[in-house]
Specification:
Layout: E1 29-30, H1 32-39, H2 43-51, E2 57-60, E3 69-73, H3 74-83, H4 90-116
Antiparallel strand pairs: 1-3, 2-3
């Protein structure tokens, strides 16, 4: 078995998850999990935004390979988020409140049905 020696200088070492170089600050590119963690954007929404040209990504793969690693340009995601209007339409907001209330009521009814029968 071969021993691996870390010859990198402390400022060049990657963190355990490989997310960023120690001391380098923000990362430039990340994977889908980074996008979800940092911005709350799901993988499917990310692909949608990439297809619309709203955020940038690159696919790193070996020559002739069918698959690779897709990396998201996080600075493009920050620019996209900065350009978004934070206001929600009142109709949509009211529609969500009603839908949430219906869902909560259904859950309560189900709990009453399951927990309410004390006979064996």
């Amino acid at each position: 078995m071969q021993n691996i020696v870390d010859t990198a200088k402390p400022e060049q070492r990657f963190t355990r998850r490989g997310d960023e170089i120690a001391g380098a600050g923000e990362i430039e590119y990340g994977r889908f999990r980074d996008l979800e963690t940092r911005f709350g954007i799901s993988r499917s929404k990310a692909y949608e935004l990439i297809a619309e040209g709203k955020i940038r990504s690159v696919c790193i793969k070996r020559k002739g390979a069918l698959t690779g690693v897709r990396l998201i340009d996080l600075s493009s995601v920050r620019r996209f988020c900065d350009s978004c209007d934070g206001n929600v339409e009142p109709q949509l907001s009211e529609q969500r409140r009603r839908a949430r209330a219906v869902g909560v009521e259904k859950a309560r009814a189900q709990v009453r049905t399951v927990g309410g029968d004390d006979s064996f």
